[in-house]
Amino acid sequence: MRTALPATAAATSAAPEAVVEIHGLWTVFGQGAEAFVVHQYLDLTIYRGEVLTLVGGSGTGKSVLLRQMLGLAHPTRGEVRVLGQPPQALGSPDAASRVGMLFQHGALFSAFSVLDNIAFPLLELGTLPRALAYEAAMVKLQLVGLKPEHAARMPADLSGGMIKRVALARALVMDPPLLLLDEPTAGLDPESADDFCALLRDMHAGLGLTVVIVTHDLDTLFALSTRVAVLADRKVVTIGPPAEVAHFDHPFIRHYFLGDRGRRAMAPLPPLEN
Ligand SMILES: Nc1ncnc2c1ncn2[C@@H]1O[C@H](COP(=O)(O)OP(=O)(O)OP(=O)(O)O)[C@@H](O)[C@H]1O
């Protein structure tokens, strides 16, 4: 799964537009002697059209950062702005029209059918007649490569890859310009992971999305990222195109990119034997 990297809008546009702006971010859990600092003076800007992948060791605060972009967690200090607004504004009922989120395990409602799951944000907002909400959901169902006959299925009857597709269709149902993906290929077999990466690449290119990914998977990182931000030492220690970041001198990066798994993911494909 080694593909040419998509060009970043940031690289091609004269004045790239910041979609996510994080300045001087502190995240502290607990108090006093129990205080635990996750982020300290963290800065990060994500531009329109990028696929920015966040990597870092376990517990470096990648998921917390996604939750802060979504307005589900609040920084202790510093500023987070998403599409020019503080993320608290995303708590409003039409938040899904600005940011779509794909949770690690899909987070589908098990008692709802596929189509009800996809239509849920539109039905909850309640501004569209139900028939139109279901029509829009059906369009998204097919956009993510599912068939109309899958609409009535229940989540328990879906494969892991199909669950991810339904969750993606739900995240996109209100056409948000920003999509957040938490471990999008976790739990998928290699072929389904490749297929899902291909779908995400198509969505990114076709819908002109800005995408933020948290992943541990190097294949996913190399297949999708226009830039990679490495979280370590409570901040972003380096950010840039994957091939550049892989050679930044930091113990986590040496371990992550230049260990066996990293070498495999970065190595050119061996020639085919006849
Ligand atoms: N609500 C919370 N209260 C207290 N501690 C928290 C809370 N949320 C997260 N943490 C802690 O903050 C740290 C960062 O958590 P986070 O889930 O963002 O890590 P991560 O980088 O996504 O890790 P992993 O790669 O293992 O998923 C962890 O030590 C976690 O236990």
Produce a short descriptive summary.
The chain is 34% helix and 23% strand. It contains ten helices and nine strands.
Description:
The protein has helices at residues 9-12, 62-69, 114-125, 130-143, 160-172, 190-207, 218-224, 242-245, 251-257, 260-266, and strands at 18-29, 36-47, 51-56, 77-82, 99-102, 178-182, 210-214, 227-232, 235-240. Strands 5-6-7-3-8-9 form a six-stranded mixed β-sheet. Helix content is 34%, strand content 23%. The chain has two domains: 1-98 and 178-268, 3-Layer(aba) Sandwich (Rossmann fold), CATH 3.40.50; 105-175, no CATH class. The longest helix is centred in the last third of the chain and has 18 residues, at 190-207. The protein has ten helices and nine strands. Residues 1-7 have low confidence and may be disordered. The protein has 274 residues and is of the alpha/beta class. Bound molecules: adenosine-5'-triphosphate (ATP). The site of adenosine-5'-triphosphate (ATP) has 10 residues, from helix 2. Adenosine-5'-triphosphate is lined by residues 29, 38, 56, 58-64.
